[in-house]
Design a protein that fits this description.
Layout lengths: L27 H11 L17 E5 L9 H16 L3 E5 L2 H11 L4 H12 L10 H11 L3 H19 L6 E6 L14 H13 L1 H6 L4 E5 L8 E5 L5 H15 L7
Parallel strand pairs: 1-2, 1-3
Antiparallel strand pairs: 3-5, 4-5
Helix pairs in contact: 1-9, 3-6, 4-5
Protein name: Asp-tRNA(Asn)/Glu-tRNA(Gln) amidotransferase A subunit family amidase
Pfam family, one: Amidase
Organism: Bradyrhizobium algeriense
């Protein structure tokens, strides 16, 4: 006879302040349909492709380009030039003011480490024995944050969200590499210091949209070997417009004729 092993697990959000549901799909149209379903709408429809002369792409130059792998940076710049050759309006810009606000929050603490610690405590889990050390150190970091500091973090975030929302329109989208590096090999992140370094780089750019409570989408960049992405960040509460713009960008990059 075979002995049966039963495993009971409980899933919960890492950070209720930041976690959002988003699809991984073959194209923007599928993301659009998934968004409609998740929004509880009726029969899903296909997205309208934004006309190229109705929006502007802004390259978010600055610290989010630091430590970009040459291959990722070259693929990004080549894609920007290709889109520009198709007639898209693309300008260099900056979101450094918003990033200063995010950095101010990070100096106090991080929402995930605080939130997951609170969730574990509410579940009656008082010990972190058995938790992966790389994860445990992040949870323990949140335990030392005072309540008054958490309130400060929340207030700073709300101010940053309002400020960023007012800095551009729904017809403007910031673009940048989704991550500055491609996925590292497991052998390169065995040491704790290396893991935390690479983990920080992989999360650095995508987390900006989470912190600023705005929609974003990543399209694949043309690159040999491991994949890289082109991230588009839209204005808060302008998810559908972002998907329309992303659909237009995707159409051009795929080499199809634009359909108005």
């Amino acid at each position: 006879m075979f002995k049966k092993n039963y495993i009971v697990s409980r899933q919960f959000s890492l950070s209720t302040s930041l976690d959002t549901i988003g699809p991984i799909a073959l194209g923007v149209a599928d993301c659009f349909v998934a968004d409609q379903v998740l929004s509880g709408e009726g029969v899903p429809s296909r997205p309208r492709v934004a006309s190229p002369n109705t929006f502007r792409l802004i390259v978010a130059r600055g610290r989010l380009f630091h430590r970009c792998e040459p291959e990722v940076l070259n693929a990004f710049e080549s894609t920007v030039e290709r889109l520009r050759s198709y007639g898209l309006q693309i300008d260099d810009g900056s979101i450094e003011a918003a990033l200063d606000n995010v950095a101010g929050i990070d100096k106090i603490g991080t929402f995930p480490s605080i939130k997951v610690g609170a969730t574990l405590r509410s579940l009656g889990i008082s010990t972190l024995d058995g938790v992966d050390p790389k994860t445990r150190v992040r949870i323990e970091a949140g335990a030392s944050i005072l309540a008054v500091d958490y309130v400060r973090m929340a207030r700073l975030r709300h101010a940053a969200i309002r400020s960023f929302e007012q800095s551009f329109t729904e017809n403007e989208v910031f673009i940048l590499p989704t991550t500055p590096i491609r996925a590292p090999f497991l052998s390169s992140v065995e040491e704790d210091s290396a893991f935390h370094e690479f983990n920080g780089l992989v999360l650095r750019n995508p987390r900006v949209a989470n912190m600023l409570d705005c929609p974003s989408i990543s399209l694949p960049l043309s690159l040999d070997g491991l994949s890289a992405g082109l991230m588009l960040i839209g204005r808060r509460n302008a998810d559908r417009r972002l998907l329309e713009i992303a659909s237009s960008v995707e159409t051009l990059l795929r080499g199809y004729s634009h359909a108005v």
